Structures are given as C-alpha cells and as structure tokens.
Amino acid sequence: MRSTSNDKPLFEATLYPHRSLPVQGFWILLACVAAVSFTLGLVFAAAGAWPIFGFFGLDVLLFFLAFRMNYRAGRLFEHVQLFENEILVRRVHPNGRVQEWRMQPNWLQITAVPSSEALKAPIPEVRLRSHGRSIGVGRFLTDDERASFAEALKSALEDARTPNLEH
After folding, report:
1. Are 83 and 9 in contact (CB under 8 A)?
2. pLDDT digits (tens, 9 = 90+) for 150-165
3. DSSP 8-state secondary structure symbol assigned to residue 8
4. Which of 44, 50, 151, 166 has the most CB atoms around it within 10 Å of its CB?
C-alpha cells in the first residue's frame, strides 16, 4: 500500500549541502580578487609584459566560473519522509530533475558511513537498505550531520515499529 498525500509522515527531513560563503560574501571576495589581479596586471603591463594583463583577467573569470558551478551544485537537496507503510526519498538535482525511491520500512536498515571509512566504502553517506535495494543519501553532509540524521531516522523507525497499545 502506498502512502497518500493525506498521510502525515512519521518523520520528515530535507537535506541541503552546506555553503559557508553566502552570495554577498562571494561578490566581495570576487571584487577583491579582481582588484588584486587588475593591479598586478597593470604592474606587468607598465613593465612591458602587457600580454600577462590578459591572464590576470582570465584567472578572475575562472574564479567566477568555479564558484558559479559550486553554487549551482548547492541547489541539490534530498527530501526523506517516513510513513507507516513506506519510506520515500526524493532527490532534486540542480537542473530540476527529480529522482524518487520508495521502500518498505519494515525491514529497513540504516547505516551511516563516515568519511574515515572512505577506503572501505567509496562514498561517505547514509545507506538505506531494504529487500535487496540500497539508497545512499546525505553524501554532502558532514560526518556529524550524517550520524545525527541516521540516528533521528532510526529513532523514528523504531517508534513506527513499536505497536501503540493505547486504545
């Protein structure tokens, strides 16, 4: 049985990548890098090495493009919902593409793989396994955030599995 939009989730979390530099801070940093590059470019141009001036402009452009790609990747998010009869994982990519997985929670196993075990498991993530299917979520989270998310989901899963004896 699938959950319906009327079902209230027993657990719900939206996971976002962390970006430590806000957009306003990026523009300030870009302006500083551009000012330093322009100044150094003028120094080289005055010394007769005028072609180097263009390379100083190129590094500012590459700096801008790298941060733009980073901020675009930061638009990815994952939405995890635990219902009584299923767990729903929805990953929304920066380009708007949506991936969705549904699993039965009765046999669900949750494992947080920390970064320190990256040699054993190639990607640090929270692994959800049920009936031979496996989904990795929270690859962009820190080890502490992954562990916290995994514990919260495990706790909600245990609560969902515990029969309610109150009538």
Report:
1. yes
2. 999 999 998 888 776 5
3. P
4. 44
Using an 8 Å Cβ cutoff, are 156 and 82 in contact?
A: yes
| Alpha carbons within 13 A on the beta-carbon side of 106 | 5
40 has a pLDDT exceeding 60: yes
Residue ranges per structural domain of the chain: 11-18+76-161, 23-73
DSSP structure string for 33-45 = HHHHHHHHHHHHH
State which H helix or E strand residue 126 sits in. Answer: strand 125-130
Token pair belonging to 105? 């929670």
Q: Which CATH architecture has domain 11-18+76-161?
A: Roll (2.30)
- Write down the pLDDT at residue 33: 94
Residue 2 has pLDDT above 60, yes or no: no
Helices vs. strands in the chain: H and E counts, helices first: 3, 7
Q: pTM score, two decimals?
A: 0.73
**Residue with token string 């962009």:** 140
Tell me how crowded residue 38 is: count the other CB atoms within 10 A of its CB.
14
